[in-house]
Amino acid sequence: MSVSAWRGAPPVIVDTNVLIGQWMTELTGGGPMHILDAMRDGALPFVVCEVLVDEYRHVLLRPKVQQRHQQTEPVVDAFLVRVAQRATVLEPAPGHPSPDPGDQMLWDLLCARDDLQLITIDKLLLKDRRMRGRVVTPEAFVAQWLQLDAR
Length: 151
What we know:
Blueprint: E1 12-14, H1 16-27, H2 34-41, E2 47-48, H3 50-60, H4 63-69, H5 73-85, E3 88-89, H6 104-110, E4 117-119, H7 123-127, E5 135-136, H8 138-145
Helix pairs in contact: 2-5, 3-5
């Protein structure tokens, strides 16, 4: 997939549930993981903060999750380093309360810049009217921004 495939796409924040879901699907031979591939390849601009990368790692190393993906801690760390190397690191900017208190960090990161979009499957975040258009599902984001060659 080329960088031009995502031409014009806004920078994104990828919620933990999306990143992990895509990686686990990839490891089990599932369908194409366009967002994850684009993050690793530098084709899609995305942002993280230190707390978000820590959350990615913490969830990937939970015993039940690790049992499903069967990757060792060094493999998880190498995966996260590869992803994080392509990211822009931002500091979250305190914003209004998140509709899901457990995701306040994502909300604050989204408030750090007006051009960011959050890719998530969290229904509470997706329903928030204040961020309508800035919080999208992976499917909606791919449908709107990915331009695959028809060759």
